[in-house]
Each structure stands twice: as C-alpha cells, then as structure tokens.
Design brief:
It contains 39 helices and 44 strands. It is α/β, with parallel strands linked by helices. It has six domains: 84 residues, no CATH class; 168 residues, Rossmann fold (3-Layer(aba) Sandwich), CATH 3.40.50; 73 residues, Luciferase, Domain 3 (Luciferase, domain 3, Roll), CATH 2.30.38; 121 residues, GMP Synthetase, Chain A, domain 3 (2-Layer Sandwich); 93 residues, ACP-like (Non-ribosomal Peptide Synthetase Peptidyl Carrier Protein, Chain A, Orthogonal Bundle); 396 residues, NAD(P)-binding Rossmann-like Domain (Rossmann fold, 3-Layer(aba) Sandwich), CATH 3.40.50. α15 links the parallel β18 and β19. GO terms for molecular function: long-chain fatty acid-CoA ligase activity.
Length: 1171
C-alpha cells in the first residue's frame, strides 16, 4: 500500500496530505473527482444547515460570512446538498493493491471503503434509493457467514434461487468468506431445471425467495432421495407457513434474518479465509439451449481473473438489472471490488428506466432487447414527427429527440452498450447518437468477456477451425472464416460431472460454437451460432438470430423466431405480436389488416437495414401465446429455446411451407395470380385491375415484391427476372399469358418480357413535340435578353451535384435569384430543408445568401414539373435561364420506367425556355455515359467535346444512360431547330469534394470503393501506370464540376460569341484530362486503409460469393465485372479540349490530377460514415 499521497482541495486549492491513519479527504458521492478538505466541507455543511454526520464530525464554530460561495458541484442533475465520504486512497493507488484471491479482493474493498455507498435498493412506493454502506454489508455478510458455519462445511455447495436483492449479495459474500461453492439458479426456472441444477451440483443448502419457495418445496418432496439439500434459507421474513409445513422433516429451515441475528451472538465454528486457487468457486449453469443445463466450473483462480479490480474514477454508480445467475454477477462484483455503488433493481421491468432516472448511473448496459425499448419509442416518435411534418429532415428530428432520450437514464451516463446478441445497425446508430462511447461485448458463460467492439481482448488467445457443413473455411478469401476456439485466464475449468462434452479441448482451447470472420489480426465479425445457422436450397446462408433482432418492434413484434429449411427457398417466421399491436388489432391471430401491415413492416425493415431478399420472411404464423422461461419458449439468458419452439410449432411451420408450395403451383391460374398480386401489394378485392393497360410497378410493385414474385415463379420453372417485372412497358396481361401458357422454355419466358425495351422506337423518342414549334411561333421576342445577372430555374438541387451547383450559383455574382425545384416540400420548410442538405453534403452556407432562393414545389415526373399552367407561365416570365440537372438515377430500371422523370422533364425544360415573352437560355446536365457502348469491351474510342453520341447504343445501354442520351439529343435538336441557345455539360465520374472528401458513393467508382472497404480487399488491375490499357478512372471532383458549370454558363460572351453557329449549342465534357490508373488509386487507398490485394478473378469471387452476392455494393453493376480484366477506361478515352480552352479564357483551372490527398480525404469520410 502506498502510504502517502497528495491531492488539492477543489474549493481552496490547499494540498491534502493523508496516510492510512492520518488526515482524510472528503469526496462527493455524486460528482466525479470532487475532493475537498475538512475545513471547506464544514463550511458547506453550515451553508446548507447540515447536521453533524455520525461518520464525519466537524468542529467549525465561527458564523458563516454572508459572502460565502458554496462548493461548485459538477453533477447538476442531482439536487444539492450532496453527501460526502472520507477517503484514504486515490483510485490509482487502491488499484495497485488488489488481492490475489476472490476473498482478499473483497476484504480489501470492504476495509478500504467503509463509508462508501455499497448496495442500494428502492421500495416500490418510494422515489429514492436507500443505501447500505460497505461497512454495513461487510458486517451483515460476516454475521451470516458465522451462522452458516454451524450448518455447512467449507467446499459444500450453496444455491441461491432468488430475484436480485440485497440479501443475494450478502449471501454471496458469506459463501466466499466460508469457502463454499456458489450455485446461482435463475429465478425463473421451473421445478424441472431447478431439480437438475440441485442434483448436478449436489447442493447442501439453498437460499430461496418467497416467490420461488413453492418450487423448492416441490423439488424436495419429489426428489428427496436423490437431492443433497439439507438446509433451506428463506430470504424474505414472512414465509408461507403452509409451505414450510410441507418440507421434508430432515430439512433445516431458517429465514435469512434469523441467521443474521444468530451470527451476531454466536462465534463461527471455523475461521474465514481464502480458497485455494484450484478450489471450486462457483458453478454457473448454461442456458440449456441444447438440453439439460450444464454446470460451468470456475475455480477461484479463474473467477478472480474475471472480477479483479480495474481502475475507474470514483464515484461510479451502476444499476444491477440483469439476473445474477449469469454474467451480470461477475460484472457487478467487478464494480464492487473498486468501491462503486450498485443499485439493485427490484421493481417490475416496465419501471426500469424510471429507476435509472432516479439512480442516474454512469453505465447504461444491457442486451439489445433492453435498448430496443428505448429505440422502439424513439422510432414511434420519429414516425409521428414525419407524419405531422412530412418535409422535416432526420437531422432536425434528432436535434429534438436525441437530447430527450439521452436524459432518460439520467444525465451521468458515460458508457453505453452490452452484449449477448448483436445490436442491429439502426439500433446501434441510435445508441451512438445518444451516447457516443458505445461498446458491444462478445462473451459466453464459459469464457466470460472475450471481445469488445469486435476486437479480442489482449488476454484472449484464439484459433479458427473449418465448418464444412456451412461452407466456411480458414482458407476463405479475403477473410478466414470458421468456428472460433478460445483460451484465456478467465476460461472455465470445464463442465461439472460431464466428461463426454468435447467443448473443452485437451490443448486448453474452448470450442465456442460461434462462427466468425477474421477481419484482421484480432478483429472479428460474428456470423452465426454453428448449431443454429442453416442454408436455403439456393445455397444462401442464414443466421436467424441476427435477423430476428432487426425485426423486433414495439409497434408490431414482441418475439419472432425465423425458420428455414435446406430444401426450401424461403424463410418463414413465428410471430408473437407486441402489446401495442394487440391493442390496435382486435383478434390479432386472425386479423388480416395486421398480417398485411406486418408484411409492409418487413419490407420497411429490409430496406432500412439493407437486408437481402431471401432474408425477409415470406410468410408468418401469428400467435398470441406468451413466451417465457416458465413456458419453456425462452431460456434463462433471455434467448429463444429454438428446439422447443420448432417442435411446438411444427404443424404451423409445415402448413406455412405447404401454403407457399400451393401458391406457387396455383400461379398458373389467372385468378390465383390476381389474388396473389392483390395480397402482395395490398390491393382491395373490389378495386378493378386492367391487366391490358397496367404494369406490375404501376400497381405498386417494388423491388422486394418483384423479387418475391420472381422467386416463386422460378420454383415452377418460369424464369422471369425482377427487373423485367418492374419494366413499365411489360403489362400484366403479357405476364399472365406467359404464366398460364405452361411453357417451360425459360429463354422464351425471359425474351418475351425483355423485348419491350428493344421495341422502343428511339428515332421517335428524339423527335421534338409539335407544341414546341407552336410555342416558338407565339414568342414575341425570339431571342434571349442579356442581363448582368441571371434569374435561374434549377432542378435536381438536392442531389449530389445539384447541392454543390446551388452553392456555386448563390456565391457567383453572375446570378441573382435561384428558383429551386423541390419535390413534396412546403414552401415554409424548403429553405431549412436545403440547409440540411448542405449540412449533409458538408457544404458551408455561411457565404450563401439563401434569401435569393425561391422554392418551386413540384414533381419531376409530372407535366410542367408538377406546376399548374398559371404557375408555369408565371415562372417563365421571371427567369432568364433553365438549368436542368434533375433526374432519377437508377441503374436497374429500364428506359420506360425512367422516361417520365428523365426525358419528359427535359421536354418541359425546353417548353419553359419557349414560354413567355422571350427565349430563355437552356443548360442541360447530361453524362459522359451517353457514349458508352456496353455491348463492346476493350475498344479505345477517343471522345472529346466535339464528338457526338450515336443513337445506336440506346438498346444496349442501361435505362438511365439511354434516358440521358435521348434527353441530350432532344436539347441539341431544339437548339438547332428552334434557335434555343443551349449548353450541354457531360460529367464523367463525379468524384468527392476536394475540400471535405464528401462523396456520392453510388456511381461506378463510389460503388467500387464501398465494395473494397466492405471486404477489405482490392484487386490487381491490368497493366502498369503509363500503359495504354483500360485500367484508368476519370475522376472529376464535384466542387470543380459545379464551379466550372456555374462559371461557363454564367459568362455572357460564351452565349453571344462562343456558340457553335450551326447548332446554336455548346457541349462541354466535364472530365479530367489527367485520368488516374487504378494501380495508383488503390495504392493511395491502402495508405489510409490497409487491404488485401487479390488477382481480379479471386476478387470478383469474393464480391459475388454464393449466397452473399446481393449484399455487395457493386451487385447492381455486376454485369460490368464479367470480363477478364478490371473494367476501366483507356487513359485518353475522354478528353475536353473545349472545356479547357473556355475555362482558360475566364481564368479557371481544368480538373487537377487525382492525388493521394483527395483519395485519403475520401476514404476518411467514407470510413467515418460506416457503422
């Protein structure tokens, strides 16, 4: 023990010297690091009129001056005055004196912190916590140990079968003092499991609560001859005498209070003392997921390693709300070793957060289900906010709600987190917003704590072994995968009286049963429990526990167990509705509205959490049975008893699959198809559907429902892709005809539905509408009016490029008012919404005059941008320029689905330029993708600003590129035939902001970066730097693109003297004349984020691994990676001589080479946004 030290009084700064027998310092029990001297403490007592404490006498007798300023306390949430304790040691000093056994650790704590608050409790009718000091708890446990020595000998087993309580701890300490073996029994166990534990442990004594007394009486009467119990301690003071009378005659019965009183007056029959290091300390029984609970043996030396003191600052308050029969006990004891205060939760669980608000703990811990209570309420409030304010942003909602939820457990939470099951991403994100210092623990009964935030603790040794039945191998790339075997000083000694289980290996490792992915040297991602994971018939791997946590919801689901079959394509689920749902939906088991809303809820969760289509239950059975430990549906750890549930619901599960099979077979019947579509898309039976005029997407079909229908059809040998189903030109009558034709030719099925794309007459698509010429003829002034500053109509201002373009228009003196087209926003909220877009895009708007923004509320997919004729005409008279940047960016949808938003809106931009008193200048934001011929690979075609795209690529490009090509041609044709002056800007790959690294991350390079960061792999591109190979990326920073467009479009001389005389148009390729080889790009990435480099063929296998391909960020552009080399561009494929020339005329720089600085900024930004 360090004998002396020094600390300064917070009030008067006087050094406080103290020794073991000398001067004390006074420490506030509520505020961290608040120590004062005796004199300042006494003055504060006088100020607050505090009578003398029996523990801390004071002698100050002078009157208090009126000018006296009391001690300032950092904890404002707990009313003054605060209590103090006398402290001898600094935490850092005490930490160095920890003992060498469980006994010595706790004796040291009790002797060192006699005045500190040790255990607290709250009576149900009380609103405060009452506290027992360390000295009081020590005395109680000593008295109990003295009494027990008269009945139980050292090394005998003593069980505790009770809810959490103060006596639980006192009995626990007495067991340590007398060298007994502790046997915690989960307080919810029924007679079966309780009997098994008592029998296996050979317990001589059991302490039981009043609630569980009848269970013990039943066990002892039914198994009197096999159990070793000879003493029962009733923890409560008022036992049921009728039950006492039923105890076997040989059982010694005592109440807890009787033993405390007995111990006060009777000396112990043997002295207290530590166990030997190899003596058994406690038996912790597993949850019993694979049968009878197994007793996990912890010797004194292993459990000591678990609970030995660690260094934290005093005071530290925690709430004990988890069952003491499992890891919670070790957790709480660990805090008690260093003098923390433990509030023991004894209320009903619906009052847990009320208790926290009173106790104000420094630690908020629990399994995901605990946090899901808060998250469920938060989610419900977010829903109501958006319902009342449709245009409010998530950031604005969180400004209101997060402080509210952060204060729910009080104002002192420093750390939040827990374990037992993975936290869903959305729930973890919510927790981190409230409490940034978040931790997620992985552990087990046998190993205690193993990792924190996915990283193995330093004392843990591990290795992986193959799991061939699930397809996981230690040789997997890029990450080894397999079952993890563990070894550490805290590892249990084995299973009690069980030599057949091979979990504890001869080489000292423990087989955890958990399948993990080794992300780096000591970082893991838990994939599944080996015994619970399964595969579906298509080879997709499913971990049900992870999915189930995602679907828990206060509004819909209290419990959900997901089930899959290796012979089936789909998952099914057993659902127990939440209490809130039961109130909302009468007769919930048979309520069709609940079933329908539940499926919509599944869709929303899948979208929010980016679940794959096969991870969403196809069908569910609704039951209102209460799942509990007593009913055997739940295990003592709070996890599902999966084997029992599967057996209990076998009939219902079989029926779910039978109904799916029947639905698949019946889909060939048009009537059955109609019924299925109505059920899938929530279309009322009395609402007519004209199959000859509408498509699947036009009646509400989305990507998830399209996948669902597509998968069903494939199982009856009808191969129709989800993309084909979503094609707006594919009418339901064509779908019906193919399904009912009994044609098993998969090729013809696919062809029949994809010809709609090739049947588009693109020559007609680029014809100018007749009303364009009529509008031109009616124009009073058939030329543009030159002004010093332009009023601009801007579409797409909330997109990636659009937000930066708006910022440039507002900071460029060549522009005046900017009429911003916004979808579904109220004018009163529009500017605030734009601010939130700027914040999200990391754009500073301090120098932007937002008063110059005039919101135009409309819809890009509706005629005249969603405006009525009067609004459209009024706008035409106010503006000088149209900048059409808006479009739906979707690489999956076919051309017909994108025509309204991308092509028809461009026609309306032309109409706007032709409407009113004069012509308007027209600026169209196209894309370099209008040149790409996706039917040809490896051709080095040179394209510059003067190159014109061909309509021949329309049928081989994706729908998005084709829609931009058609629009590009329409604008240039309108310029030539209607004399509309126009500029067309064709950006290449728009890269991140050169200032902040903020990125779009949904274009080609962005998706590649996300895929590489996710798998921590990059590939070896073809060729070397400088070689003429298609391994280059043409990257233009978004801020450069926006600034260049604003500057070029705003320069008057370019509209008057710079136009192409023949076409009345200028085209600018917004590309970088300094493309970067992917070799350099990947090297820059790895400087910031180390990755494994793989040959291209291996890298693609990693990205599109069977059963996991859909989760890859590059899955939507999978077709680009089917060649033999990494898809890129040639070094001189795209150039921009006109752009460079015109920028030079106005003293603007071209796009600069992509260097390490910007790449690293981009990677840092992306990593900061990854949970």
């Amino acid at each position: 023990m360090i004998e002396s030290s020094e600390i300064h009084c917070l009030k008067c700064s006087t050094p406080i010297y103290y020794t073991r027998d000398g001067v004390y310092r006074l420490q506030c029990v509520e505020c961290r690091k608040l120590s004062v001297c005796q004199s300042c403490y006494e003055l504060d007592c006088l100020y607050y009129h505090i009578p003398q404490s029996q523990h801390i006498p004071y002698t100050y007798s002078k009157p208090l001056l009126d000018s006296y300023v009391p001690i300032e306390h950092s904890c404002k949430s707990i009313p003054l005055p605060h209590e103090y304790t006398r402290e001898k040691y600094l935490t850092t000093e005490y930490y160095k004196t920890r003992g060498t056994s469980i006994y010595s650790v706790f004796k040291n704590a009790f002797n060192s912190f006699p005045e500190r608050r040790c255990l607290g409790y709250k009576n149900p009718e009380s609103s405060i916590y009452s506290w027992l000091s360390y000295q009081t708890v020590h005395e109680l446990s000593n008295n109990l140990a003295s009494a027990l020595s008269h009945f139980i000998s050292p090394k005998e087993a003593v069980g505790i079968f009770s809810e959490n309580s103060i006596p639980w701890y006192v009995i626990d300490f007495a067991i340590t003092w007398n060298r007994y073996v502790l046997v915690p029994i989960h307080y919810t166990y029924g007679s079966g499991n309780t009997r098994d534990v008592l029998l296996n442990s050979s317990a001589s004594c059991v302490a039981v609560s009043k609630k569980n007394f009848s269970t013990i009486v039943q066990c002892l009467n039914e198994s009197q001859d096999t159990l070793s119990v000879r003493m029962v301690i009733h923890i409560d003071s008022d036992p049921d005498q009728s039950l006492v009378d039923q105890l076997p005659k040989n059982i010694i019965f005592k109440t807890y209070q009787e033993l405390i009183e007995f111990g006060k007056t009777n000396a112990p029959l043997f002295p207290q003392g530590p166990r030997e290091p190899t003596d058994l300390s406690n038996l912790s029984y597993t949850s019993g997921s694979t049968g009878v609970p197994k007793g996990v043996m912890f010797r004194d030396q292993e459990y000591y390693e678990w609970i030995k003191p660690f260094c934290i600052h005093y005071p530290y308050v925690v709430l004990n709300h988890g069952p003491m029969s499992h890891a919670e006990r070790g957790f709480m004891l660990q805090f008690l070793t260093i003098g923390a205060a433990v509030g023991v939760f004894t209320d009903s669980y619906d009052k847990m957060f009320d208790n926290m608000a009173i106790l104000q703990p420094h630690l908020l811990h629990g399994v995901p289900r605990v946090f899901s209570i808060l998250y469920g309420q938060y989610e419900a409030e977010v829903f109501e906010f958006k319902k009342q304010n449709p245009n409010i942003s998530d950031e604005e909602i969180d400004k209101v709600l997060i402080p509210k939820y952060r204060s729910v457990p009080g104002e002192r939470v420093i750390i939040a987190g827990g374990g037992a099951a993975p936290f869903p991403a959305n729930q973890e994100s919510f927790i981190r917003k409230c409490w940034p210092n978040f931790y997620e623990v992985y552990g087990s009964t046998e190993m205690s704590m193993i990792s924190k935030n996915s990283r193995f603790l330093d004392h843990v040794d591990f290795k992986l072994i193959d799991v061939p039945e699930l397809g996981f191998f230690t040789t997997d790339k890029p990450y080894p995968r397999g079952e993890v075997l563990l070894k550490s000083p805290t590892k249990a000694f084995g299973y009690y009286k069980n030599t057949s289980d091979d979990s504890f290996q001869d080489d000292g490792y423990f087989k955890s049963g958990d399948v993990v992915e080794l992300r780096d040297e000591r970082t893991i991602k838990i994939i599944a429990r080996r015994k619970m994971a399964f595969k579906l018939s298509n080879g997709e791997f499913v971990s049900p526990q992870t999915l189930e946590t995602n679907f828990l919801s206060q509004q819909f689901i209290q419990h959900i167990m997901i089930y899959g079959d290796i012979l089936k394509t789909f998952l099914v689920a057993i659902v127990i509705p939440s209490e809130e749902a039961k109130k909302k939906y009468p007769d919930i088991k048979n309520n069709k509205e609940y079933y329908s809303d539940l499926n919509e809820f599944f869709k929303s969760v899948a979208k929010k959490n980016r679940l794959l289509s096969y991870e969403v239950p196809f069908s569910s059975f609704i039951d209102d049975t209460e799942w509990s430990i007593a009913s055997n549906h739940m295990l003592a750890t709070g996890k599902y008893n999966r084997s029992f549930i599967q057996k209990a619901y076998k009939t219902e599960i079989d029926k779910l699959y039978s109904n799916i099979d029947q639905t698949q077979r019946s889909l060939r019947d048009p009537k059955a198809l109609d019924e299925y579509l109505r059920d899938l898309l929530k279309i009322p039976s009395d609402q007519p559907i004209d199959y000859s005029t509408v498509s699947f997407s036009q009646i509400g079909g989305d990507s998830l429902s399209a996948v669902k229908l597509s998968t069903l059809l494939k199982n009856i040998n009808i191969n129709i892709s989800a993309t084909s189903l979503l094609n707006q030109d594919v009418k339901l009558s064509a779908l019906n005809e193919i399904i009912s034709s009994n044609d098993s030719d998969n090729i013809s099925n696919t062809t029949a539905l994809t010809t709609a794309k090739s049947n588009v007459d693109f020559e007609k698509e680029i014809e100018l509408d007749k009303d364009f010429f009529e509008l031109y003829d009616r124009l009073p002034l058939k030329q543009v009016e030159e002004k010093e500053r332009y009023n601009v109509f801007l579409t797409g201002c909330t997109g990636f490029l659009g937000a930066f373009l708006l910022k440039e228009l507002l900071t460029n003196t060549l522009y005046d008012k900017v009429y911003c087209h916004l979808r579904n926003k109220k004018e009163s909220e529009a500017k605030q919404y734009l601010k939130s877009i700027f914040n999200k895009s990391k754009i500073s708007f301090n120098d932007c005059d937002l008063d110059r923004v005039i919101p135009i509320i409309g819809d890009l997919g509706k005629p005249k941008f969603g405006m009525d004729v009067e609004q459209f005409n009024e706008l035409a008279d106010k503006i000088d320029m149209v900048i059409h940047n808006g479009a739906t960016v979707n690489m999956v949808f076919p051309y017909p689905n994108l025509k309204k938003t991308n092509v028809d809106s461009t026609k309306d931009a032309i109409r706007l330029a032709l409407t009113g008193q004069r012509l308007k200048k027209l600026v169209y934001i196209s894309t370099i993708g209008v040149f790409l011929d996706r039917s040809v690979e490896g051709i080095d075609t040179k394209i510059n600003d003067y190159t014109q795209p061909s309509l021949n690529v329309a049928n081989v490009n994706n729908g998005y590129s084709t829609s931009k090509l058609v629009s590009d041609m329409l604008v240039r044709r309108a310029s030539k035939e209607l004399n509309i002056p126009s500029m067309v800007f064709r950006p290449g790959t728009i890269y991140c902001s050169s200032e902040t690294g903020f990125d779009n991350a949904i274009d080609y390079v962005g998706l590649i970066i996300k895929a590489m960061l996710k798998t921590k792999t990059c590939c070896t591109p073809a060729g070397q730097v400088g070689e003429n190979v298609s391994s280059y990326a043409n990257l233009s920073p978004v801020d450069w693109v926006a600034s260049s467009i604003s500057s070029l479009a705003g320069h008057h001389d370019f509209w008057t003297n710079g136009m192409d005389k023949e076409t009345n148009n200028l085209v600018f390729n917004m590309v970088n004349n300094n493309p970067i080889h992917f070799r350099e790009f990947f090297d820059y990435m790895m400087q910031e984020y180390p990755m494994t480099e793989l040959p291209y063929s291996e890298w693609t296998k990693v990205q599109f691994k069977e059963g996991e391909a859909e989760s890859s960020p590059i899955y939507p552009i999978k077709h680009l990676f089917q060649g033999k080399i990494f898809p890129g561009m040639f070094p001189e494929q795209f150039t921009c001589p006109r752009t460079e020339e015109y920028l030079k005329r106005i003293n603007k720089l071209p796009a600069q080479p992509t260097d390490a600085t910007i790449v690293k900024k981009n990677i840092r930004y992306l990593l900061s946004t990854t949970n």
